[in-house]
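Hello, quick one for you while I still have it in my head. Could you read through the record and tell me how the tokens relate to the sequence? No rush at all, and the record is pasted right below.
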Amino acid sequence: MKHMLAVLAAVACVAAASQQEKTLKMKQTELSLLKSYVEAARDSLENEIAQRYTQKQRAVDQRESDKQELDRLRENQERAANDLARVKEECLAKEQALADERKLADAAKEEWGFVLSSLDEILAKDADGVMETFPADRELRRAGIERVRAGFASAKDPAEAWDSYVDYLRKDLERGSSVSIAAGTILSDAGFPRKLTMARFGNVFGLAVDSAGKPYMIRQTGRLGEDRYTLDAVGAPELTAFIGEAMPRWLGENAVKGPVLTEVLQNDQSRLLVSGKKSSWLRGTYEAMKKGGLVMIPMLFLPLWAGYLTLRKSWIIVARRRRFSRHFKNAMSHLAKNDIEAALAYVQKKKGAMSRILEVCIERKEHGRHASERAVREIIMQEVPAVSGGINTLAVIAGAAPLLGLLGTISGMITLFAAVTQYGTGDPKFLANGISEALITAKTGLAIAIPVLFIHDFIRNGKDALMSELERLSIAAMNRIWPEE
């Protein structure tokens, strides 16, 4: 049994050993397979690592290449931005230069327009002043200046127009600074043409005769515009004889030679000297008023208006004062006899403030003095406007006259400065004309205002005295009717 057990044990050991050997072979086989798998996996891994490394190397190389390309693109972008900034600066500089050039062009255009307008204004001013020239030159100057203006309007060339204008002025200056004798047509002061044979002494004056041999003198008036020159008929015997003797001689010689009889001052007295008439205070007054200008027209009505108001208010004050006294005395004579009915009948027939006051006092005798005083005060208040009307107008006239004189003064100064602007200060006649107009209007205004002020004070005092007399008579009447109150 034991042997069996030992055999079984040995068999079991052999079987276990055989089984272990099989197991070992299987393990070795598995190990070999695993080694082969490991070798294959290692080779695959190495290949994968190699491929990954290669890819990584390629990625590194690509990154370096991309970085270089990016740097190149960045440099190109910066270069392009710099070029763009430079181009923008150049554009701004060109725009600024263009704006400056445009400003210069506009300034040149404005200067050109100013030159054109200034020259056109000069030509227009000269054309407007044609009527102020010497009468014999008016048509020549009109034709000359219109020819210059027409050429300037068509060509718009200031240089050419200025040369034409200077030539036109030179010819006019030659005519105005020469002494000549010739026949021509001149517009008279009446406005119709007159054919005359004229000896002209520049632009100062001229002596002429018509076809009938009647002598004339062309002289300056000291005024502006169309009235600068006037054609006066000669009436002075000395000047008539001189023109009658000298004109045929000058025509025969075709030149003005020898002494010339004329009025060198060329003022307003020249007209009287040429006409041979004597001056009168009426004519002197008329000439003074004429010198004063248009302002003198309303100023002439002020003293007439003031005189009318003075006479009217003086008559009203004197007449009413007498009427008040007469009505009061007659009514008081009836009341002194205690004839109230007769007094009432008398005042009812009369008109005026005094009769109404007496009528109110008599009718309200029974109502007492206090009630009548209010009615009397009301009647006196109603009488004030009727008596005062027109008195304030005298004060207005006294204030308006110097103002009109001041207006004339300003007008005269404007005339003076216009003469200075156009003719300068070389000719005193134009200066004296404006100054005389200013002084005449101021003098006339003061001459009207001063007496009107005294008249206004006199009339106002008369009105106050009349109202005081009315109040005094009213109180006396009430004292007579109500002696106990």
User: Anything to note?
Assistant: Strands lie at 179-187, 193-201, 205-209, 215-220, 229-233. The two ends are 196 Å apart (CA to CA).
